[in-house]
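ARCHIVE CARD
Drawer: 12
Card no.: 0347
Subject: one protein chain, sequence and derived structure
Cross-reference: see card 0346
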Amino acid sequence: MQIFYTTSFDIEKNTCFLTEEDSYHCIKVLRKKEGEKIYITDGKGHLLTGTITNQDTKKTFVAIIEIQIQEKNENENLTIAIAPTKNMDRMEWFVEKATEIGIGNIIPILTERGERDKLKTERLHKIAISAMKQSKNYYLPNIFELTNLKDLMQHCIGFERFVAHCGDVEKHLFKLINCKQKTIVLIGPEGDFTQKEIDFLKTNNFQEVNLGETRLRTETAGLAATMIFQINKLSNSL
């Protein structure tokens, strides 16, 4: 089932139009015609069934004939704050896979040993949209702009707070995480957080955790934390 994306769903008028990128793909590439049935999501849990009312490669309008709402889950409770990798392919890989598995928020963070101080989040957003559609997960994660640790604290109010690093830490994230609670997990750069950063985070109520016996790359650590959250969610549902 091919799924398209909209940012303009009007629930009262039962209409929407596809994004320019999806309009082009729908009409020019897939050669969909006026009156044909297609499926759309708004990234907010809705799966829409509609018919094309015009054949515009820049702004395809759709009349909605059915609305399904994906069952709300705890994915929105998980925020991963992660230092961008020097190789952007790895960061993009993390965004794609975390979106497929299920995540609420991704916050790129500035750190002392970080390898990037600038980041184009527009491409990450497009990758997340594609991964959402491919995985039939109709909730699109929020992707924030690059944020320093001090400013990050405003995103942590009311959250369970964890920082994963490569130091000698006994507690594993698996033993502490609770998918029913709003949770933020910090993942540092390849060179890890500095002790100064760890001390700052500890004074702001972050618990130190490890993610296993092996040393993980940044993007692998981010995905491991996402999986641990999902395993906790699964175990709670059994």
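Annotation on reverse: The domain at 3-69 is CATH 2.40.240.20 (Ribosomal Protein L25; Chain P). The helical segments are 20-29, 88-101, 121-135, 149-152, 173-176, 195-203, 218-237.
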